Amino acid sequence: MLHIYCPHCAEYRVETEFHAAGQAHIARPLDPEACSDQEWGEYLFFRKNPRGLHHELWVHAAGCRKFFNMTRDTQSYEIKEVYKVGEKPSVVDSPAQQKAMSMETVSEETVSGENMSGAQS
Amino acid sequence: MTQQNRLINGGRIDRSEPLTFTYNGKKYKGYKGDTLASAMLANGIDVVARSFKYSRPRGIVAAGAEEPNAVLQLGATEATQVPNVRATQQELFNGLVSASTNGWPSVDTDVMGMVGKVGGNMMPPGFYYKTFMFPESLWSTYESVIRKAAGIGRAPKEHDPDTYDTINQHCDVMVVGAGPAGLVAALTAARGGARVIIADEQNEFGGSLLNGTEQLDGKPADEWVQTIVEELNTYDDVMLLPRSTVNGYHDHNYLTIHERRTDHLADKAPVNQVRQRMHRVRAKWVVLATGAHERPLVYSNNDVPGCMITGAVSAYINRYGVVPGNDLVVMTTNDYGYQAALDWSDAGRKVVAIVDTRDVATGDLIEEARKRGLNIIPGSAVIEVQGAKRVTGVSVADLNADGTKIVGSVTKLKADTVATSGGWSPVIHLSCHTGSRPVWDDTVVGFLPGPTLQKQLTAGGVNGQYETEIVLQEGLDAGQKALAEVGLAAVDVVLPTVKTLKITAPMSLFHIPHLKPTSQAPKQFVDYQTDVTAAGIEIACREGFEAIEHVKRYTAMGFGTDQGKLGNINGMAVAAKALNKTIPETGTTVFRPNYTPIAFGAIIGRNSGALFEPERYTAMHKWHVEQGALFEDVGQWKRPWYYPQGNETMQQTLNRECLAVRNKVGILDASTLGKIDIQGKDAREFLGRVYSNAWAKLAIGKCRYGLMCGEDGMVFDDGVTACLGENHFLMTTTSGGAAHVYEWLEIYHQTEWPELEVYFNTVTDHWSTATITGPNSRKLLEELTDFDVTNDNFRYMDWKQITVAGVPARVFRISFTGELSFEINVQANYGMPVWEKLIEAGEKHGLTPYGTETMHVLRAEKGFIITGQDTDGSVHPYDLGMGWCVSNQKPFSYIGKRGMNRSDCVRKNRKQMVGLKTKDPMKVIPEGSQAVLDPKAPMPVPMEGHISSSYWSESLGHSIAMGFIKDGLEKMGDTVYYPMADGTVIEAEICSPIFFDPKGERQNV
Amino acid sequence: MSDLNTMTAAESAATKAAVMDQLPSSEIEGQSPLHHADLLSLATQGPSTGGIHFREHKLLGHLTLRCNAENADQLAAVERVLGVGLPIQPLTSNESGDYSIRWLSPDEWLILVPGLEAFEIETKFRDEMPGHYSLVNSSGGSTVLELSGENVVELLQKATPIDLHLKAFPVGKVVSTLFAKSTTTMRRTGEQRFELVVRRSFSDYIWLWIQDASLEYGLVIEA
């Protein structure tokens, strides 16, 4: 069971107090009406599923009920950092690893993810 | 014949406290301090099980958690039955009742025994797959026969009378194992001021020190152990957990410990005491001092009772005062194996021979054996054992230098006990639990804990260190390191002096060759519990299973409840040899939690019976119970379902409740509806973004119904929201959806629109809601308030703050039944007093309490949806015919707008909600029924949609249904058919879902 | 009976939020969430010694305040109304006389006051508090349970995953966390005394749970 540092409560709590809320930094398009069906579908449904570093949104559901972000290694379960909504991660894959990852996973280009990162504020 | 193998003196048993126990219906005696296994051996019980596949007699092999054979069923009564108890770990108590589980009808006369003796090849490796796979329909038959014959034990058929619980612990240093390394590590950490937990699976601390005759500081080792335990007990922040197995090591230094608190006292826990407790520990640092398990050697007929491991022989003699036989042959690949022979001769029984697989060995223990004139046979091995239910003799032959071949002639020796030692396997199980891969070490001849991400230290036997002096030093080092890591200063700990033994190098040998090839030699068992032989592993390799994981699954090696603690390394060695690889090249399988079997009770803890799941009650719950209501689960809420009177059937109750509402007045406890208080100047804007309809103009004092959609445009919740103040709203949600809706509002506020000034607060529990509905509801309300509640002063969809029955209330004039209704909300502390006043005053108006089922019928008569019943995540507002609840005038693209305008959402042929009126008015279409256009069409018949809500309407005198039909809104008047499982077909006409009072006049009077 | 406590729409609009005196006259007795358990009878009939002591502090005024901890004007207003300031540090509480405030989240606090004062304090807040905030009377939605005694820490360790060692959980600390399969806001009020704010609808479950888990220590009901 993960031991998670809540950046709002400023202490470690057990995983059962939290809910995972999916991939972090998925910003709602500012003008949904301007999105094509494909763009909207990508915003709604397409998510990364990396082996390794992943940026995730969590909520301290049984505690302060605040959402926050986490950089987590999906393979080792190591939590690299937690940071507040609106902040950017300090732990990111090196460009080389990102490239390797994008070749491993389904065509990254169809996912609009990167240009949205950090836009959530 | 009483305890013929018991020594007159010695051991840690208390001869002044004799205990009686039962094994397979026969009574025996033992002593306090015995394990069930030591008492059985004292009484000369040889056969404790029949083997899994071949049904061969099996005896006790080991003295601890690694025991594969003596796995018994315990329990004096049906309710206290416990399967899968290792006799080597069960402390003896007076009145203990045990039975063997393998063997049918009994271990001594076994019908399955024929399989083993006559047809040894009837169950080759992979036998499940080859034999029992087809036909699949017969699997349940196979399974019951296999289980009965193999005897995996059984669960009690009655309710377990004992209490189990779980407890959460936190510490700086968690020490696993209280042998010499663990004790020193714990002592060091404790002296440094750390919060320490030290756990050991045995009843007393000391580990291997309790099994031997070693001296520390010139005194018996147990005296040193006692001093350490006494000091540990003086620290407030140190917790000592004997009888506690650390069963799991999980991510982020989280450990689960299975503590058996009363299993050693009696069949059942003393009154009010907890039988077993699961400790869930979060440790800053973990010290694994788990020691090592001795490996038996693999030779022909090595499973005949009387074949043991040497360490177990020493443990039974030294700790329990039991010599498990008369004439001993030791076979060893290392110096430590000699200790069993020395202990045996000290106990006054005959050591027939010590067979050393090495040509030359000159360690201190060998010299001691020589000095005593024991018969040492170097460069040789026991290749085969004679005997059936007990060893009667052994065949000894010379080995070549690398142990791969028999050379020279075979000598037969008479003996009843064979103790073997193939070296020691570090107990790396816990380290593996967190995903760390173990690493082979040629010097240790075993796997060591591999690199890990956990804050983990290891000390002693788990590192392949078996010399007490080194083990103690490693314990000290681990303790000091842990102190430094948690920010505490190093402390002084003086280690006891121990005699250092001169040890000769062990030989790396696992599988003893036979004169015949392995496939033809008498069975050489690798894994006793799953009956895997060396020949079986060779076959698996020959059949193409090269990865060790596949060999394991194909042969079932390590699949028993002992997880292959004794056999796995030997099996890997056999596979390596067959594949012509080294052991590290072959690799190892890893271990998962739990280390030893654990009672389900300890996992469940208190979460059973009444505490299995929280039951949420409203303030009026007690009244509903007293009125004989039946309850429906809505989320965790218990809601009154219906209130039967006398001998009413459910339908009769519903008919009565429905008619009461339509003709007089009914009362419903609606407190469970989710309620969210919303404040802030942007509250109105926020509502407009999360609801599909418009909120800009809702005036203070007014209520409005809203639909909530996901970004995909699909409806997921609905409810009425009231404007309490210009910047103040009260939102209601479905009873089951409240928590989700609250989180939905928060996630959008926190992550998307933090600039909006709005705050949300859950007030579901704060307000109690009594809904009175029906033509008499106004008359009833008038009796309890001075406020003018006439239609002129209190309009439909208004809310008023008034006093009801003397209690300040917010009353909402909204309706889910189509009747004139008032939802009376009071602070929940006053919910019951107001409810009781309503019931009292309502009597003359024909007030009838009704439950959720009547509520469902009444709302269906009106065509009102229930989200989650009439919606399933694939339905948008237009599909529901609720386009009136969608505003496209709002400037902000509210949640759901873009989604419901996707091409798939606006296409033709979507399933739309309609009413369905059966041609036979008495027929109620079962919910979930599928509509077809032509009941005679050939299969597969195209399906047009399903029934989502369907009831008998007593008010209308016919059945009603809501359901989905492709383009249904354009097919009013058409006929559809619902084929039933029994071959009949229900015919229905598509109609408006509003069956009752289509103009909505009744709610607006 | 009268409807004088009714706030007119105009008055409500003036304050932008609806404030309501929710209490009836004293002849009507409120029923706390554990009313049905009849703790008074249990207290008189039950054992007087045991490792766990249990008491319900019923019918208190519970006010949930959400505001901006960085707004000095708001902080000053709170102090003016309650005579005690908002605890700004996470997981802390402040207390003065009958008034106590618990940190719930960076923008949320739970204020407990005597039951009869809730409306008066709410009204004062509406007069004093500037800026964007919300104040909600949640008195009916929860109750306060006090657990004490020599085994209280062990009992709570079975229910919550929180580290209760005095070094990690000093007197005055407050956490919102799990309690068995429910939740609670828990504050330490003494070395061996804790205050649990629990939701009304879950209170019977928690009460059952405490009784079951106290069996081995002995449960003393106080009322």
Describe what this molecule looks like in 3D.
Chain A contains three helices and six strands. Chain A is of the alpha+beta class. Chain A has one domain (3-116): Folate-binding superfamily (Folate-binding fold). Chain A has a four-stranded antiparallel sheet, with no helix packed on it. In chain A, strands 1-2 form a two-stranded antiparallel ribbon. By secondary structure, chain B is α+β, with helices and mostly antiparallel strands. Chain B is 22% helix and 28% strand. Chain B is built from 25 helices and 49 strands. In chain B, strands 8, 9, 12, 13, 14, 15 and 28 form a seven-stranded mixed sheet that branches. Chain B is elongated. By secondary structure, chain C is α+β, with helices and mostly antiparallel strands. Chain C has two domains: 34-59 and 141-223, Gyrase A, domain 2, CATH 3.30.1360.120; 60-138, Heterotetrameric sarcosine oxidase (Alpha-Beta Plaits), CATH 3.30.70. Helices cover 26% and strands 30% of the residues of chain C. Chain C has six helices and eleven strands. Chain C has helices at 9-15, 39-45, 72-82, 118-128, 152-159, 200-214, and strands at 52-57, 61-66, 93-96, 99-105, 108-113, 134-137, 142-148, 174-179, 182-190, 193-199, 219-222. A six-stranded mixed sheet of chain C has the order 8-9-10-7-1-11. In chain C, strands 3-4-5-2-6 form a five-stranded antiparallel sheet, with helices on one face. In chain C, a hairpin with a 2-residue loop joins strand 3 and strand 4. The longest helix of chain C has 15 residues, at 200-214. Chain C is globular, with a radius of gyration of 19 Å. At the B-C interface, strand 8, strand 15, strand 38, strand 40 and strand 41 of B face helix 1, strand 6, helix 5 and helix 6 of C.
